[in-house]
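Hello,

Our lab assistant flagged a job as stuck in the queue for most of the afternoon. It eventually completed. Since we weren't sure the result was trustworthy after the delay, we are filing this so someone can double-check. Below is the sequence as submitted and the structure that was eventually returned. Let us know if re-running is recommended.
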Amino acid sequence: MSSKRSPMTPETRTGRWTARLGGLAVAACLTVAAPPALADEVGFDRVVRQLAGYCARGPATGCAERAFDLIDANDDGVVELEEFQRLDARLRVWAEEHADELHPKDRRALQLGFILADTIGIERAMLLYDEDGDGALSLEEMTADLVLDDRPLPEIVQAREIVDWPSLRRRFGATAMIFDYLDIR
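-- returned structure --
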């Protein structure tokens, strides 16, 4: 008995890729800024796998909360620029160390995330989301353009409902064309 796959249309391909990117982004957010005790390779990798598993099955709102709590390494209730910079640096190291183990689509999704971070800039992204001007992001500010509910994150991403695209485009202005150029939507 042969199993016949349905043809990959551009929309199907983009939807699957977006689902992978969203899952990896949340897993990265959940794990990269882990407390110093988890900064070693074995601990970091364990946290990545545990939290990615939670985000795959648990409610997306809980996934975002866990991500925020881990990024907020000093537990002050907001995420500062330095915490995001540590997240970016640690994720890049982790991705390089595990490149051979990652599925090619996951590797490309991570590379795309790095391209976006380098193009838009962490500092600029923080400024765009810092609604109260305190120089840090609250959970509400950080998730302002995301549509999260009690469904698991992959379900929301696959349905292409995770991003409030009009809001994101207003926030990023002309820079939003990078999402079109990279075929993210």
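-- support follow-up --
The delay was a queue issue, not a problem with the job. The result is valid. The longest strand covers residues 79-80. The first helix runs from residue 10 to 31.
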